[in-house]
Amino acid sequence: MEVIAGLVVILTIVLPVTGQLKTGFYSSSCPKAEDIVRSTVESHFNTDPTVAAGLLRLHFHDCFVQGCDGSVLISGSSAERTAPQNLGLRGFEVIDDAKSQLEAMCPGTISCADILALAARDSVGLSGGPSWSVPTGRRDGRVSSSSQASNLPSPLDSIAVQKQKFAAKGLDDHDLVTLVGAHTIGQTDCRFFRYRLYNFTRTGNADPTISQQFLTQLQALCPKDGDGLKRVALDRDSQTNFDVSFFKNVRDGNGVLESDQRLLDDASTRSFLQKYAGNIRGLLGLRFEFEFSKAMVKMSSIEVKIGSEGEIRRACSKFN
């Protein structure tokens, strides 16, 4: 969504079928499925707008472990969601809410994996970002193990490691930078970046890539011996608006996570970041929205289960 000369313009992007998923997969079997997911997400968003970033992150973490199969939604002491890399995941109640409504209307039809993909799209739209056609037809996985979450991207990853992890999922450098742009909404805990403020590389000093002004702000928000669970915006300028200010912040040394700031360390990722950061309003912002939509469709198709693979769960938190 862009504001131009006082007018609000909704940008809707229609993208082609990807792989063996299909846009409108439920148009006959459960025609109101996408409307129900959207209204459910909107209801929760109206109560707590920060849930949008949670749902977007939940989908990302699902797709990077065994593909986009809803495995991150399973409850259990050794399930995927209990892995250290998945600390702080949220939005499970939104998916469960949508699932219960869909089961009442179209039992055994809509997969949890598809609900999660649709909810991520709707979260972006509600935050002022683009809408896009989500190819559906995913089935839910039957395996969820915390040990398999070890390859999830980490805020400590160097740019080389980030590129390797994305490439392993069929995503290139452009996809990496574009998808990291999801950090335009959302927050993180002080514990995940405080080392950058006081003892970077165990030198007792701050990370020199942080601008001095921003360092002062972060130290005030996250004192050395303060609460590590305190939440801080990943985009200091507009944490609830889906826009390109996140890229400008990173370009100017105002990235919160080390992994985000490291996007400037590589010529390829730096080039994409600088193009997105070039202008806060206007056509460049719209281009990011278009590229983000494409990258989300690509990511949402990672190692999907289709046809007779997997199952359609009756409840998203447990296998049938």
What does this structure look like?
It catalyses: 2 a phenolic donor + H2O2 = 2 a phenolic radical donor + 2 H2O. The record marks 57 as: Transition state stabilizer. Residues 126-154 are annotated as: Disordered. It is found in: Secreted. With 320 residues, the protein is mainly alpha-helical. The chain is built from 12 helices and 8 strands. A hairpin with a 2-residue loop joins strand 1 (2-4) and strand 2. Mean pLDDT is 91; it is low at 1-19.
Determine the structural class based on helices, strands and strand pairing.
mainly alpha
Shape annotation: globular
The overall average pLDDT, rounded, is 91
Percentage of residues in strands:
5-15%
Give a quick account of the main beta sheet: strands, pairing sense, barrel closure: 2 strands, antiparallel
Give the helices and strands as they follow along the chain. EEEEHHHHEEHHEHHEHHHH
| Separation of the first and last Cα atoms | 40 Å
Helix segment count?
Answer: 12
Strand order of the largest sheet: 1-2
Number of strands: 8
Oligomer: single chain
Helicity, as a percent range: 25-40%
- Rg: 19 Å
Uncertain residue segments: 1-19
Site (Transition state stabilizer): 57
Binding site for Ca(2+) 1: 62, 65, 67, 69, 71, 80
Binding site for heme b: 183
EC number: 1.11.1.7
